[in-house]
UniProtKB/TrEMBL annotation:
The gene is dinB. Pfam families: IMS, IMS_C, IMS_HHH_1. Residues 356-370 have a biased composition (Acidic residues). The record marks 16 as: Substrate discrimination. It is found in: Cytoplasm. This is DNA polymerase IV. Its EC number is 2.7.7.7. NCBIfam families: PRK02406.1, PRK03348.1.
Amino acid sequence: MRSHASVLHIDLDAFFAAVEQRDKPSLRGKPVVVGGVGGRGVVATASYEARVFGVHSAMSTREARARCPHAAYLSGRFHAYRETSAAVMSLLREVSPLVEPLSLDEAFVDLAAADLPGHEVADVTAFGHDLRRRVREVTGGLTASVGIGTSKFVAKVASDLDKPDGLVVVPPGTEQELLRPMRATVIPGVGPATAERLRRAGVHTIADLEAVSEDELVRLVGRSLGHGLHALCRARDDRPVQAERETKSVSAEGTYEEDLTDRRLMEGLLSRQARDVAERLRKHGLSGRTVSIKVRLHDFTTLSRSTTLGSPTDEAAVVARLARGLLADLDTTGGVRLLGVGVSGLADWVQDELFGPDDSEREADPEPEPALDVPSTRHRAWAPGSDVVHTELGPGWVWGSGRGVVTVRFETAETGPGPVRSFALDDPALSLFRPPSPEAPAADAP
């Protein structure tokens, strides 16, 4: 742990929803939910106005609509999120060469590598206020919550204490005083299952964790997590801010609007995903030893299975064969809504022929891939929230569509709330906005 509070964590507030409210003036100050808009959808982000009604990320869209039926439900515009995120990350890299992005809306920054006049509490506090101001400028008004502390763990906890648009600096030496009253679930890795094990042992808060010996924690939750909990509940965290994070796995998955019940179709989809994963592994010069599948059943139960090879592979046929074998051990008769394949235990080499897969393992599927008739509802060409352009009225966004009609509100971030007009779905004057493809992506990680 550092002697100065020089690790910063920044979290853009309700990011996807905030971008939508920025670009759609009529939605400012109103509940907005971004995510899957269909019956199988899941909430990605809810604005703070929607959170008042109990809507939160990872909730099913069906439940969100029941809680907040008057919210705007939008499918999302990832080109706008990527562009906004890139502006923020560029700003952070101007501040320090050590920036570790965690997602589009979240990052760690090492202030020890920044050009600050000092690293005392007053110095980093002034910097935090200025950074939040600069974020508002480069994003067109979005807010960010910032935490600054002596470690990644403390900084991340601090950034969540005064949301939205907050700044919390934890002075060195006060970390445990801050942490002790908090629930043990603020520690990374303490999910529902671990929290229940701790609860049965009488452990609810971080102060309770401190009272448990390291050996007892290992007995309760396992060696790796037990050692980690023992250190973090005492605010011990020496993890560095890493400008480049090592890829730990490569995966592909799909969610289906109707439950899959045909086992051959599921096997075909897993084989297709395995080919996608293998192609990405080879593209980045990687291979992996552990193949896993993820299966979400009709009742939302999620099952995971994995198997480990003796040597790493990037062979699509090997990954596909193992994935299909893992599926064979699962009962999917009730229907499957999500399938995924992943490869982990990555290496930057593939074992040579002497120790690698034998010829039978290298043999690709002998028969051509059958056509995969995946059940789905009609494709939504005019997804709610999508950017559109009308030859006369200019830019706008899809308010809704159905029965041969699409309704558009014409407004942008620079205008006030705009007028609403309806058009035939095939009106030649109306088209979806297609963002230009970046010529040189900043990153092409697997």
